[in-house]
């Protein structure tokens, strides 16, 4: 499955969850598929999507937080897996779109062709860890993970497409913050 | 109340309500105070850039964060501060322990100890270097500054000032 189609498929299942998207194509494709107030598009700071989502999950325990991560992003801050496994926020869902390449910089190989991120998440202490290899397994996995307590982890192996077609996120960074906070009722 | 407890109370009175960071040896009594006060919810982060990310998320959720770190970690957090906190204009207080501030510390602190304030100036981010007498007023000024500018603001502590 193409990454953009996988992102759109997951977003079609999202209702009031907060979504944090990793930089590069993941943010662009999420914005193109469903541009909602509860999406935080991380434009730079590669590696920090999961820490941002963790901070949100700890600050707002009554809201489920979903992070759309990439393999390169998660590899950059793997220690965050240990924090999530240690703190165990039940409202945290970690989805990794793993294409085994640095897709936003020209498809250079990443380590995940040989390293199983789902096994690392399980070892870290995530309570529900799954892997989806085919598009037809995605809906059931998302439905299940959105209905149960976490922290949960979904590894979705997607095709390695060097370039997408989604435009840049059209919002200024400050506007993204204002919109997310307003969507969460923060004055 | 000990000095660490008094400092934490200053931070709380200034409205800060989310605490994360990476341990620094010069903050040991402060970190012990957090460890004895689980109600404060201090989150130990695996690295300083991750701590800035967590603080950013907490702000999106409506909290007012403080990030504790050693100055060596400030260098590690430069990308998080520049490419995340600065461009999204996330107010957060950085409480930085300043190893190598006078050139007499161990060798691993020499280069970044000398560069610490210039790192902040390079971003640029506002900062204060309190001494024991100015601590309370500098906490208040830092809180006003980060509100006025919607940016991180740092308090840089030589050893022995805050605990």
Strand and helix layout:
The complex is a heterodimer of chains A (187) and B (163).
Chain A lengths: L2 H9 L6 E4 L3 H9 L5 E3 L7 H11 L5 E6 H6 L2 H9 L4 E7 L2 E2 L5 E2 L7 H8 L3 E5 L5 H10 L4 E6 L15 H11 L4
Helix pairs in contact in A: 1-2, 5-6
Chain B lengths: L2 H11 L4 E4 L6 H9 L6 E2 L3 H13 L4 E6 H6 L1 H11 L4 E5 L12 H13 L4 E2 L6 H15 L3 E5 L6
Parallel strand pairs in B: 1-2, 1-3, 3-4, 4-6, 5-6
How would you portray this structure in words?
- The complex is a heterodimer of chains A (187) and B (163).
- With 187 residues, chain A is an alpha/beta fold.
- Chain A has one domain (3-183): Thiamin diphosphate (ThDP)-binding fold, Pyr/PP domains (Rossmann fold, 3-Layer(aba) Sandwich).
- Chain A has eight helices and eight strands.
- Chain A has a six-stranded parallel β-sheet, with helices on both faces. In chain A, strands 5-6 form a two-stranded antiparallel sheet.
- In chain A, α1 (3-11) packs across α2 and α5 runs parallel beside α6.
- Chain B has a single domain (3-157), classed as 3-Layer(aba) Sandwich (Rossmann fold).
- Chain B has helices at 3-13, 28-36, 48-60, 71-76, 78-88, 110-122, 135-149, and strands at 18-21, 43-44, 65-70, 93-97, 127-128, 153-157.
- Chain B has 163 residues and is of the alpha/beta class.
- In chain B, β1 (18-21), α2 and β2 form a beta-alpha-beta unit.
- Classes of the chains: A alpha/beta (187), B alpha/beta (163).
- At the A-B interface, α3, α5 and α8 of A face β2, α3 and α5 of B.
In order across it, which strands form the biggest sheet of chain B?
2-1-3-4-6-5
Number of strands of chain B: 6
Total number of distinct structural domains of chain A: 1
CATH first level of chain B: Alpha Beta
* Percent of residues in β-strands of chain A: 15-25%
CATH topology of chain A: Rossmann fold
Which homologous superfamily in CATH is the superfamily of chain B?
A: Thiamin diphosphate (ThDP)-binding fold, Pyr/PP domains
Q: Roughly what percent helix of chain B?
A: 40-55%
Our count of helices of chain B gives 7
Show the largest interface.
Answer: A-B, 36 and 33 residues
CATH superfamily heading of chain A: Thiamin diphosphate (ThDP)-binding fold, Pyr/PP domains
The residue-averaged pLDDT of chain A reads: 95
Backbone structural class of chain A: alpha/beta
